[in-house]
Amino acid sequence: MIYGVFSIFLKSRCTSGTNRLYNQIEFPGMLTIRNERLLTNSMVILRLFIGWHFLYEGIIKLYNPDWTSLGYLASAQGPFRSFFISLTSDSMIGIADWGNKMALIFVGMTLLLGVFEKWGALVGALLLALYYLAHPSFPWLTEVNVEGNYWFVNKNLIEFMVCVVIYQLPTSHNFGLQRLFDKKKEVLTQTN
Which positions ≥6 away from 138 have C-beta within 8 Å? Predict the structure, then answer.
């Protein structure tokens, strides 16, 4: 159902003469994408899901007056432990909490709305890298204050890679506010 709705919006991007979304794309020595339309639809849905996750996390933290990153930072492990512990000081914890909330909301809004998508993916990747480095899932570390049991790869690292892929394959020109801005530019250039 959801896939069909997005297909209608994305199908309208094809022009009658070129049918760009149905062409085969080849990356020499790597892979061949036979259905670019399916890839684009999948990337749009992935972008929206990740955007929703970031936005939800940011808003929940923003409206919960008791939320703080103190526990997460204070239990940091790994090679950057001292850096994360330094953020728990009275002078820094408020800045760390505010920055975390704003970054989550920024990433969520950009990915959901499809505007400044690359900036959102970049900030999201940076934020997730910090989350991973605070609690790396190395087998020789005892996992503290994390959910699940992981061995090198955890959900923060997976979502980090998703943000990298979204950065490399932006879709806001297919579905999002950026598409409207592109159309407006196109109309303005045609009238001049």
Answer: 78, 152
Separation between Cα atoms, residue 190 and residue 192, nearest integer Å? 6
Comparing CA positions, the residue from 114, 129, 101, 154 lying closest to residue 13 is: 114
Start-to-end CA distance of the chain, whole Å, equals 41
Q: Cβ of 129: how many Cβ atoms within 10 Å?
A: 14
The reported pLDDT for the residue numbered 29 is 60
CA–CA gap between residue 80 and residue 87 (Å, rounded): 11
pTM of the model: 0.74
Q: Distance between CA 131 and CA 73 in Å, rounded? A: 9
Task: Say how many C-beta atoms besides its own lie within 10 A of residue 140's C-beta.
Answer: 5
SS3 25: strand
Per-residue pLDDT tens digits for 11-58: 444 443 444 444 555 556 665 656 778 888 888 899 999 999 999 999
Which of 67, 74, 50, 60 is closest to 127 using CA atoms? Answer: 50
Count of beta carbons in the 10 Å neighbourhood of residue 179: 19
Distance CA 92, CA 71 (A): 14
Q: Rounded distance, CA 116 to CA 110, Å?
A: 6
